[in-house]
Specification:
The protein is of the alpha/beta class. It is built from 13 helices and 13 strands.
């Protein structure tokens, strides 16, 4: 059987990405030490809402008359919003988020977004995942660079599960020189899949890396097979969420459930990524009910379930949500909204100074809008990710993570 490294990396449930030789994997004798070292290490979980979520109907400026004038049929009525601070309110479908906000675990950053003005989903997503707005040539992701720039004292030990993505391939966010693993289903996580048809692939690839003199190929193979062994020892099939925790059925809920499994198994996870689609509401968006409401209910319930499932471990977790851009302040002729600019980001965590809406609010009166159509950006998304990165992963060299952003602790919002 002819199997190339490129074919292996592009197929199956496993993807490992790196541009330098991967160090020899940890032996069984030091696994206990790694588990101990990583048990108290902070973890960063990143969720990408693909399709451009409508931040104005997610966190509603319900005291502004312009909001209702511009959205005559899809605005959330004042008497239906879940009040946050007397000015903003959550969409009623996000009732699962309200206790997290009230308890001080959930912070909200409104009017956040990219300084680049593109309205292309593809370009905007790439810019946010690379962390370099307007620069198409960037080949790696901000989260991968963040892991590479960790404070050395913080980054004492690493395992094959240091960076994971729940999905069919490693997203741009995690691509780069730090190895990352992607999996769609942790119970079937294996080189080349599982079952009788997978055996020849496993054997052929293992033989290939055993005999190879290519440092990168050998390291990648060793990392891959030991990751499989390590996960099997954690026995994910026996996992049960914490008492009373029910994840929503569906791909997103299942992804967060599996991230919780990996985090609780002490496998050395430092950064986890997943995404969720369905936010491109050009038509029939709905207000209190409808398309967006259904998406928001699933989204908030899954994250709330993840938070409760983590229990005491949630103290060391920071979860950040992001979307490529927001949507127009005015509804369109088909009961939806078109591609906009600024949006809302959520930050959830044990160390988060929640119960507050952060950022400078620009307003939604016509004269306050960007190009007379969108919520204006007042907080660069890199400020939010930069603070989460610095205070969760121990990164001090933010210029290496977000080149050109000129980030510093002085311009943090201090939600952590």
């Amino acid at each position: 059987m002819s199997i190339t490294r490129r074919a292996f990396l592009k197929s199956g449930a496993l993807a490992v990405v790196g541009t330098s030789a991967i160090p020899g994997f940890l032996t069984r004798s030091v696994m206990a030490e790694v588990a101990s070292a990583t048990a108290t290490r902070k973890k960063l979980v990143v969720i990408f809402q693909r399709g451009a979520a409508d931040g104005l109907n997610i966190v509603v400026p319900y005291t502004e008359s312009s909001y209702y004038q511009m959205r005559p049929t899809i605005a959330v009525p004042q008497n239906r919003v879940l009040d946050l601070n007397g000015y903003f309110g959550l969409h009623p479908a996000m009732a699962s988020f309200k206790p997290l906000y009230d308890q001080g675990h959930l912070a909200i950053v409104h009017a956040a977004g990219s300084p680049d003005m593109t309205r292309s989903h593809f370009d905007a997503q790439d810019y946010m995942e690379s962390g370099t707005p307007g620069v198409k040539a960037t080949q790696d992701g901000w989260l991968n660079r963040a892991l590479g720039a960790e404070d050395k004292q913080h980054a004492a030990h690493h395992t094959a599960f240091r960076a994971i993505a729940l999905g069919s391939q490693v997203p741009l966010t995690l691509q780069g020189r730090v190895p990352a693993i992607a999996m769609s289903n942790i119970q079937s996580f294996a080189v080349g899949g599982q079952g009788p048809s997978a055996a020849p692939i496993n054997s052929a690839f293992q033989s290939m890396y055993d005999e190879s003199t290519d440092a990168l190929l050998h390291g990648t193979g060793e990392e891959a097979f030991n990751a499989v062994k390590m996960l099997k020892e954690a026995n994910p099939a026996q996992y049960r969420p914490a008492a009373g925790v029910n994840y929503p059925n569906g791909e997103f809920g299942n992804s967060l459930r599996q991230i919780a499994q990996l985090l609780k198994a002490s496998l050395g996870v430092e950064a986890a990524f997943t995404d969720v689609g369905g936010w491109d509401t050009h038509q029939n968006q709905g207000g209190v009910d409808g398309q967006l409401a259904a998406r928001l209910q699933d989204f908030s319930r899954a994250i709330a379930a993840f938070w409760l499932d983590m229990g005491d471990d949630a103290e060391n977790i920071t979860l950040v949500t992001m979307s490529e851009f927001g949507r127009t302040a005015r509804q369109n002729g088909t009961g939806g909204t078109d591609h906009g600019h600024a949006n809302v980001m959520f930050v959830l965590g044990g160390k988060v100074k929640g119960g507050k809406v952060y950022g400078r609010w620009p307003g939604v009166a016509p004269e306050q809008l960007n190009q007379n159509r969108d919520l204006a950006v007042t907080t660069d998304f890199r400020q939010v990710l930069g603070e989460a990165t610095a205070k969760t992963l121990g990164v001090h060299r933010l210029d290496a993570v977000f080149p050109g952003a000129q980030l510093s602790r002085q311009n943090f919002l201090n939600f952590l």
